[in-house]
Amino acid sequence: MALAAHFQLATRRGDATARMATARQLADARAGDPPTLLAAAKLLDGVGDHARAAVCYEVALDQAAQPDGALLGQIGIARLRAGNLDGAEAAFTAAASLRPSDARPVYYLGVIARKRGDLASARVRFTRALVLAPGMPKAARALAELDVPHP
Length: 151
Hints:
CATH superfamily of the largest domain: Tetratricopeptide repeat domain
Number of strands: 0
Strand content: under 5%
CATH class of the largest domain: Mainly Alpha
């Protein structure tokens, strides 16, 4: 039986252990259909297996008929959580180019810049995110935190 079918069967049966094991196998095999991969990615992300979650999102994106900015954002978040800053930056940059009015990828590019110690770039990104979405609280907080001296 295909891995996707195993995952779906484990889901229907409520077998969390089998579902998790199969989600990991889907990521490792880079296999599955997009709905199954997205469900597996969310499951893996929820337990902190961000690198495998990113792989599931990537394989689903590879199967998409056209680029998907929201899915690129999910890839970016999973990669960021996994500590893959270069991969996260690539995903958020692509998402921002597909969805230029979406503040979220711009905000996350600011987070990456801050993690790298590039506070000037972080400031530009957080400010741009606030221009795109004036009510975005996490961008406002992040920008304010740049001005707080750290010991």
